[in-house]
Amino acid sequence: MAAVELVGLTKAYNGKPAVSQVNLEIASGEFFSLLGPSGCGKSTTLRMLAGFVVPDAGHILIDGEDIVGRPPEKRDIGIVFQNYAIFPHMDVAENIGFGLRMRKVDRAAIQRRVGDALKQVGLAGYERRYQKELSGGEQQRVALARVLVTEPRILLLDEPLSALDKTLREEMKYWIKDLQKTLGITTIYVTHDQSEALTMSDRIGVMNKSRVIQVGAPTQIYERPADLFVTTFIGESNLLDGTVGRASPDAVELVLSDGSRVQAPPRDGLAAGRRVKLVIRPENVLLDGAGAEGLARLPAVVTSRIYQGALIRYRLEAAGQSLVAEVQNQAGRAQHDAGARVTVFWHPERTEALPVD
């Protein structure tokens, strides 16, 4: 499978940047996701890779060869869009074999490759069905088979699950990832859904305002966000206002708005006096201080308790600010009513101090 490198990739429309100096390296066989809000440039990046949009500057390298200027049909890249574009007047086999017929592949080879593609996507026996006889998930599989039958070096997926309902989206994201692992095909997946990106990807590139903000494994993106945008876009976070009191190579001491002092891992650029947000994920806020040595702590008041089955979600006030804790609902664990005075704890290494600016 092919390796992909984007070097200084840039595109603007009417003077407004759509993609600005994007630099990415995607390994052969990797499942790489571009994640970001609508309008951040992720789909434009994908379309430049596919050859549907011409970049203003930069290079697109596949296995070291620059393909900028090469027409889409000569890039050996397959792409699946949000709209699966299944031809309603063709049956499944005809839809899947369409690209091969356009390439003048002989009939026997088309029949064999269509059969193989149907097996790959779990639709053997569906050859003579039409679009109206297929569920949304089955239509998506047909769209994938139509791409895979051409044996591309690279697979591009542009928000392919957005048209499906929640239950089917959950099912299909695991199915796509399993298929990609089986085939070993280099895959670039565009989505605005953080759950999809975290679940499916080997690595993620987070985009905002035409630029790539951070690239890393899902655990790194979630647990070590590069800035406040990544923090708030990926998952839910508590953000406590504070100021750097003292910084060292080992830790940063923060002074919260009520004068409380807590520690966080060191980060470049955090000097004394700098305003920061202390980032704590709700699942890392503890209401049980068992073995509390080395834990940060703050007195708090419960403002509400929400039962969520496996989880109890608490809203609290601590250090004059709002805080959310998600606690496992376990037998024997005490539950706290609104108005209860408690102490919240967290592991300092499970926090981040991010500059406000």
Q: Would you kindly provide a written description of the structure presented here, covering whatever features stand out?
A:
The chain has 357 residues and is of the alpha+beta class. It has 2 domains: 4-231, Rossmann fold; 236-355, RNA polymerase II/Efflux pump adaptor protein, barrel-sandwich hybrid domain (OB fold (Dihydrolipoamide Acetyltransferase, E2P)). The chain contains 8 helices and 19 strands. A 6-stranded mixed beta sheet has the order 6-7-8-3-9-10, sandwiched between helices. A 5-stranded antiparallel beta sheet has the order 13-12-11-14-19, with no helix packed on it. Helix 2 (92-102) packs across helix 3.
Descriptive labels:
2 domains; elongated; Rossmann fold; 357 residues; 6-stranded mixed beta sheet; alpha+beta; 19 strands; OB fold (Dihydrolipoamide Acetyltransferase, E2P)
Oligomer: single chain
The major pleated sheet works out as: 6 strands, mixed
Roughly how much helix do the residues carry, as a percent range?
10-25%
- Return the string of H and E elements: EEEHEEEHHHEHEHEEHHEEEEEEEEE
CATH superfamily of the largest domain: P-loop containing nucleotide triphosphate hydrolases
Beta content: 35-45%
**Which regions have little confidence, pLDDT < 50, spanning 5+ residues?**
none
- Domain count: the total is 2
Please identify the top-level CATH class of the largest domain. Alpha Beta
- Tell me the total number of β-strands: 19
The spatial strand order of the largest sheet comes to 6-7-8-3-9-10
Shape-level CATH architecture of the largest domain: 3-Layer(aba) Sandwich
